[in-house]
Amino acid sequence: MPNTTTFSIRMDADIKEQLDNFCNAVGMNTNTAINMFARRVVRDKKLPFEVALIGEPLTGEACLAEMSRRVKKIETGCTTPHEWIED
């Protein structure tokens, strides 16, 4: 038997259900699909889909300035919890 390990992940319950349903429909279980994903990432040394930023990434001084702006917004109460996640 190969050397295996167990790990757990947090996932939206609806997404998990949809993933389980898809895997069952194509004749595999979710564990097999996740292992296929992991093996593909390791083999290709990249994600099997595109990951992109929307807009320009913030670096250096621009990043610090944006972080300061957001902290001030929170400290002055000019935000909502939703904005903390999405802003």
Describe the fold and architecture.
It is a single chain. The chain is an all-alpha fold. It has 2 domains: 13-44, no CATH class; 52-87. Helices cover 57% and strands 0% of the residues. It is built from 4 helices and no strands. The chain has helices at 13-25, 30-44, 60-75, 81-86. The radius of gyration is 20 Å and the shape is elongated.
Quick structural summary:
The chain has 4 helices and no strands. By secondary structure, the chain is mainly alpha-helical.
Task: For this entry, give a set of tags.
single chain, 87 residues, mainly alpha, 4 helices
Give helix % range. 55-70%
Proportion of beta-strand residues: under 5%
Inertia-based shape: elongated
Secondary-structure element pattern, one letter each: HHHH
Radius of gyration: 20 Å
Number of helices: 4
Supply the helix-strand structural class. Answer: mainly alpha
The rounded distance between the terminal residues' Cα atoms is 48 Å
